[in-house]
Amino acid sequence: MEPVERFQLDALAYLQCALGLLGSVVLRRMDSAYGRYASPGPAFRVPARAAWALQELPSLAVPLGVCAGTAAERLRRAPNRILLAMFLVHYAQRSLIFPFLIRGGKPMPLYTFVLAFMFCIYNGYLQSRYLSQYAVYADDWVTDPRFLVGFCLWLIGMLINIHSDHILRNLRKPGETGYKIPRGGLFEYVTAANYFGEVVEWCGYSLAGWSLQGGAFALFTFCILFTRAQQHHQWYLEKFEDYPKFRKIIIPFLF
Ligand SMILES: NC(=O)c1ccc[n+]([C@@H]2O[C@H](COP(=O)([O-])OP(=O)(O)OC[C@H]3O[C@@H](n4cnc5c(N)ncnc54)[C@H](OP(=O)(O)O)[C@@H]3O)[C@@H](O)[C@H]2O)c1
Fold first, then answer.
1. Do you know which PANTHER family this protein is assigned to (predicted)?
2. Atom of ligand 1 at shortest range from CA of 221
3. Is 0.85 topped by the overall pTM?
């Protein structure tokens, strides 16, 4: 069975790359339909906090189930444990902390919620199954420059992401639901500082793990967030006359 499952995990990773590329094409044609772009129709919606907590939870629950349900042989090795911990730390923050800090977030359309929920099951399974059963690293992988640089990028990216989400949240006073120009931190350089942090984080994870599965997740994240960042950038330029014109979209000093 093992070679078959190994092949399946590679196929799932290639499919994730294809979904990311397809997602960016589809999102270019229709705005990512949540937050400021959610149309005010009668569609069924999930309150923002519940939506974020529930849709992201599989990224935490599925890996824990995968590791508890089988003899996770590879998790005896330090690199595998650290890489899985990197994934879990992010999603513990995203599903257990981030939702409860949201201020005035727009309710999530049901289909967006379902898609995000399914993606988290898919990716949670892909990353955790690969790391717990198949990823093989040399004993000294944790001192390899790829692991060290990747780990630092992951940590810096996560801090940028959390700090930038904090800046966005604090633009609103309790009870407010409108939008203002973000100031401070990396928002002085880019429109989507929170997405920049998230992209750096998963590129770091991918570099540290040096695997098709990690690379597929980083590519998927970049495709989706770059497209949404472009939409945000255009939206700010149209909505605020005094929006700083020198700000890039997502990568400081580049684009
Ligand atoms: N890995 C992935 O593929 C992926 C995909 C999507 C998101 N994420 C992550 O999930 C987190 C949230 O994503 P998101 O797409 O919801 O981010 P977002 O559009 O930047 O919004 C984040 C929060 O800040 C509020 N907000 C944004 N801009 C604001 C402004 N100018 N003034 C006042 N409030 C503002 C939003 O309120 P409203 O809801 O009212 O707009 C929302 O509650 C981010 O950290 C992102 O990196 C990851």
1. 3-OXO-5-ALPHA-STEROID 4-DEHYDROGENASE, 3-OXO-5-ALPHA-STEROID 4-DEHYDROGENASE 1
2. 3
3. yes
Q: Can you list the alpha helix ranges (DSSP code H) found in the chain?
A: 2-29, 48-56, 58-69, 78-92, 98-101, 110-129, 145-169, 193-209, 212-239
Q: How many CA atoms lie within 13 A of 169 on its CB side?
A: 13
The first and second tokens of residue 93, run together, are 């923050």
Q: Which of 109, 112, 85, 128 is nearest to 217 (CA)?
A: 128
CB atoms within 10 A of CB 233: 19
Residues 6+ apart with CB under 8 A from 205: 83, 86, 87, 150, 154, 214, 217, 218
Select from 225, 232, 237, 177 the least CA-distant residue to 200: 225
Q: Per residue in 164-210, pLDDT tens? A: 999 999 999 988 889 999 999 999 999 999 999 999 999 999 999 99
Nearest-CA residue for ligand 1 atom 5 is: 225
Which residue has the least CA distance to atom 18 on ligand 1? 35
Mutate to test the pocket of ligand 1, among 32, 36, 49 (most ligand atoms within 8 A of CB): 36
Burial of 171 per CB tally in 10 Å (0-12, 13-18, 19+): middle
Q: Which two tokens stand for residue 80?
A: 């595998």
